[in-house]
Amino acid sequence: MRLTFVILIAALTVSCHRTQTVGGIDVIAKVKDRTLTREEVVKVIPKGVSSADSLLIAANHIKKWATDELVYSVALRNLEDEKAEIEKLVEIYRYSLYHYRYLERLTKERLSVEIGDADKLKFYDENKEKFKLERAIIKGLFMKLPLNAPKLEDVKTWNKSTSAEALGNIEQYSVQNAISYDYFYDRWVDFDDILSNIPVHIADASHFLRTDKSLEKNDSSYCYLLNIKEYILSGNIAPYDYVEPKIVEILINQRKQAFLKKFEDELFKDAIKKGDVVFEDEFQSNVNKKTDL
């Protein structure tokens, strides 16, 4: 009963600002010696919501917080026999978190991730077999139009053409009439990703792409139009411009790993020289060989 009363009062005070102040901080709820502040509650309330919705969101958050605190309190009492193991796990996580956060900051501050075109092309040429397509890719144009859109037959005709005039007509038309419009004559996209927007089942993508350059499909509300300018079937080597983002990611990761290994090796060698790291004699010679000391 006491908890319910505190939560209710706390929820009401989110709006009326009559909260308890502890050390200059507005406290909205308390569970034993644990406190929840106004600032923490305000952070979970989306901007622009009504006062009534704000109050409801705040009340739900306060109740959830109080319940979690109560469960935590009960867990502390009932898991006393596992306290040592839990503290050890907490320390391992704390250690790992500091380790990860510092190395991430270090790489951002000291490692240049600018990958030149020559490096990217060199990696692509040397590793083409690693870039075989698992799915077909295409260049083309896709539109989704209401069935009652004006001049729909004209659009279907324009869609089958790649002339500058037809493309100009489509672009102007799509601004006012298209539900969805995607021009990708200038870039490769996954064929299956495009098909996911069309209510059609194509059992053999390779056969379809070899025999068809356009697709028209209607459902009860919309007309779907796809024009295919180029395609590359699965199993073929992906073109450079399609895999370039992946190449950049690979090269950045390689640089990062090399940078971190060098940093850790230098840190280790320096610590040994200073005497901060000491080994038993039986291991010292092997360590020296491993670190080239």
Topology:
Elements: H1 2-16, E1 20-22, E2 25-31, E3 34-37, H2 38-42, H3 51-78, H4 83-110, H5 117-126, E4 137-146, H6 152-159, H7 164-177, E5 180-190, H8 191-195, H9 205-211, E6 214-218, E7 222-232, H10 240-274, H11 281-291
Antiparallel strand pairs: 1-2, 2-3, 4-5, 4-7, 6-7
Helix pairs in contact: 1-3, 5-10, 6-7
Short description:
This protein has eleven helices and seven strands. It has about 290 residues and is an alpha+beta fold.
Describe this structure in words.
This protein is 57% helix and 17% strand. By secondary structure, the protein is an alpha+beta fold. Among the domains are: 2-78, no CATH class; 133-232, Roll (Chitinase A, domain 3). A four-stranded antiparallel β-sheet has the order 5-4-7-6. It has a three-stranded antiparallel β-sheet with strand order 1-2-3. A hairpin with a 2-residue loop joins strand 2 (25-31) and strand 3 (34-37). The longest helix has 35 residues, at 240-274. The radius of gyration is 31 Å and the shape is flat. 14% of the residues are buried. Residues 1-19 have low confidence and may be disordered.
Major sheet: order of its strands? Answer: 5-4-7-6
- The name CATH uses for the topology of the domain at 133-232 is Chitinase A, domain 3
Order of helices and strands: HEEEHHHHEHHEHHEEHH
Q: What's the main sheet like?
A: 4 strands, antiparallel
Number of helices: 11
- Specify the CATH architecture of the domain at 133-232: Roll
Q: Average pLDDT across residues?
A: 88
The portion of residues forming beta strands comes to: 15-25%
Instruction: Bin the helical content.
Output: 55-70%
Q: Which residue ranges are poorly predicted, with pLDDT under 50 across at least 5 consecutive positions?
A: 1-19
Distance between the termini: 69 Å
The value of Rg in angstroms is: 31 Å
Which CATH class of the domain at 133-232 is shown?
Answer: Alpha Beta
> What is the approximate shape?
flat
Q: Which structural class should the secondary elements be placed in? A: alpha+beta
Number of strands: 7
